[in-house]
Automatic annotation (TrEMBL):
Annotated protein name in UniProt: Nucleoid-associated protein YejK
Membrane-spanning residues: none
The family this protein is said to belong to: Belongs to the YejK family.
Molecular function terms, GO-annotated: double-stranded DNA binding; single-stranded RNA binding
Keyword annotations of the record: Cytoplasm
InterPro entries linked to this entry: Nucleoid_associated_NdpA
A single cellular component GO annotation: bacterial nucleoid
Keyword Iron: no
Subcellular localization(s) per the UniProt record: Cytoplasm, Nucleoid
Signal peptide start-end: none
Pfam family, one: NA37
Amino acid sequence: DKRTLNQFRRFTGRAEGLSISFEAHLLGSRIEYDEERDTLRISSLPTQLRDQLKRRKAEQESTS
């Protein structure tokens, strides 16, 4: 049925070095869209992404 199909639907986008893709059912829970500010807020980042971000931050702090 239509509800089952929507569970497998994905939102995707790519522009200027940024690529994002997520399952539709995450919108409104882990991913929040603010239309007025044209922003996405992502909660509970994937572990691999979070680790990469932490390493990058540590590298930047050690060079400043």
